[in-house]
Amino acid sequence: MGNLQIVTDSTADLPEDVVKEYGIKVVPLSVNFGDQQYIDGVNLTAKEFYEKLRQEPKIPTTSQPAPGQFADVYRKAVEAGRKVLSIHISSKLSGTYQAASLAAEMVGKEHITVVDSVSVSLGLGMQVIAAAKNSHTLETARQAALDAKKQLGLLFLVDTLEYMEKNGRIGRAASLLGSLLQIKPVLTFTDGTVDVTEKVRGSRRAYRRLLEIFKERVGGTAVDVAVVHGGVEAEAKELIQEVQGLAECAQIYLNYISPVVGSHGGPGILGLIWKPASI
């Protein structure tokens, strides 16, 4: 990593081998089932979380890291003579970006750049990876993350909008509430919040439409692809096979959606994320 430390949060859904390869620091968020608090990826794995989520009658709540958690990470990096690039979940979904920004002021803003990804899951993670691959200087890393952000594609399907509605994270998709039960939207992110790409009748049709939209948007461009899921690994692997038949995939990532993001999307969520492989 040289003179630059890349920092993100646990909603980036980065595979563990990527975290280790680039020496990325991941600050965890928390999930609360009633009065029981779990630290994302520390004392609750994603697999355990989705099993628990299907059994629990109440939807869990989530909480961002305290500024002090970021400050500890930043301070160690700065004391080691490094600059810090800290990239985080959309500020419209979580207070994590604000907590990181406050920590940067506490430690010294001249050493630390905090970026709002306006995305989530490996939509955030792809920006972090782009920065890590171009971490010669703070500016080259920041620019690579920005380039990835501008050209990122993200589509996802949910079993139900119930979780996003109850957690207040539904964004522009709120117009779907009260729709016929068979409507299965293809969702995306616009300006950092959930938005509707298309309304489709039936789960299988929504799945096929997601693939069609992906093919239309990618064209002949070689892409890095990520498939993320909420406890439906078989479906996620099927989606990867489909995508490989539609586009030239330079790099493929597969991972669970983190417990914090899964608390808002619910079990069964399936996401497809991509960016040009050249970034």
Descriptive tags:
single chain, 279 residues, alpha/beta, Rossmann fold, Hypothetical Protein Tm841, Chain: A,domain 3, 4-stranded mixed sheet, globular
In a nutshell, what does this entry contain?
With 279 residues, the chain is of the alpha/beta class. It has ten helices and 13 strands. Helix 4 links the parallel strand 6 and strand 7.
Describe the structure.
The chain is α/β, with parallel strands linked by helices. The protein folds into two domains: 4-29 and 64-150, Dihydroxyacetone kinase, domain 1 (Rossmann fold, 3-Layer(aba) Sandwich); 153-276, Hypothetical Protein Tm841, Chain: A,domain 3 (2-Layer Sandwich), CATH 3.30.1180.10. The protein is built from ten helices and 13 strands. The strands form four sheets. The protein has a four-stranded parallel β-sheet with strand order 2-1-6-7, with helices on both faces. A four-stranded mixed β-sheet has the order 8-13-11-12, sandwiched between helices. Strand 3 (30-33) and strand 4 form a beta hairpin. Helix 5 (122-133) runs antiparallel to helix 6. The model has no long low-confidence stretch (mean pLDDT 92).
